[in-house]
Amino acid sequence: MQIYLDYSATTPTRPEAIAAMQMAMTQHWGNASSLHHWGNRAATALERSRLQVAGLINALSSETVVFTASGSEADNLAVLGVAGQFSQPQHLIISTVEHSAVAEPARQLETRGWQVTRLPVDRRGAVSPEQLKHALQDNTVLVSIIYGQSEVGTLQPIAELGAIAQAHGALFHTDAVQVAGRLPIDVQTLPVDLLSLSSHKIYGPQGAGALYIKPGTPSLSAIVSGGGQERGLRSGTQAIPTIVGFGVAAELAAAEMPTETLRLIHLRDRLFALLSDVDELSPTGDPRHRLPHHVSFCLPYGEITGKTLVRQMNLAGIGISAGSACHSGQLSPSPILQAMGYGDRPATSGIRLTLGRQTTAADIDWTALVLKQVLARALPAVSPLPV
Fold this sequence. Notes:
Elements: E1 3-4, H1 15-27, H2 37-56, E2 65-68, H3 71-83, E3 91-95, H4 100-111, E4 115-119, H5 129-135, E5 140-144, H6 158-168, E6 171-175, E7 194-198, E8 209-213, H7 240-274, E9 282-283, E10 294-298, H8 306-315, E11 318-319, H9 335-339, E12 351-354, H10 361-378
Parallel strand pairs: 1-11, 3-4, 3-5, 5-6, 6-7
Antiparallel strand pairs: 2-8, 7-8, 9-10, 10-12
Helix pairs in contact: 1-7, 2-7, 3-4, 7-10
């Protein structure tokens, strides 16, 4: 029996998206920038996909969606694209629990003289709106706060944070890669200027992402220059089959969300409940304001790392993650858990179990049983370290 519980890392491409991609590869293979029949067919498929992705977040105009090669590139375009409009360094605000696709561009800007404020988070991983208010400066040009934290599942108060930033006159960006397709996003009411999406988190193919740019937002600087595609912000011939798969996945995610989100919440809470009697597991993240598919824990024993548990669960046929997938190859403490106040040793023991379309109640029950058995075999008889 094999159970995949790492849907926050990536999702299997759904059959409908694969079928649409196969059709695109055989019938819409032209260059969308070409003016002839073959180019027009590709351009039509491209714009249909743009409408589908726009529909997922209730963007009224498809022109607000710029396709990229990934959610990470969309994050980079948001941060560096805003920064590139200024000849002199300005002030940028992010949180201490950002994805590296935001944290690293911010670090790069810092080396160029930009001032970067990293807002702390509480034990749940949440940013305080009051701290954002106090951090804003006259030269703050961008605030970028992640919507749903991939490692611990915490949902940030994006509506409140965005309203504060915009009232101050700063642009507001959010990485919504983990939220899109799992919770409703309405950019007509959500105070965001820029919002990042990723295809492979919503059962589309890997290799496609998008950045929503609110109408009226000042022009961004391109980070990929050349042919002028994607409003001049992302040059390069568009990968039509990949984008088509993204569009189909986005449309289906929007249609299925009302029922699928409730199903995932039920399974998520079931797994938390089944593991609630395991003293060695300490839940991480916000228990209430949380991604619907996300379960995460920290082990307060320094002798066992999250990576060890991932290996043991894999031997039992169950795929989970040691914290964020982008850091799962490292033995160093999780910077996300450290930012939340966990010590170095507990911060190496974080595990994440994320659920998806193929997850069943039987999968949840079996996973809880196996994890308890793995912990019983692996944990030495030692006193827990403070978390």
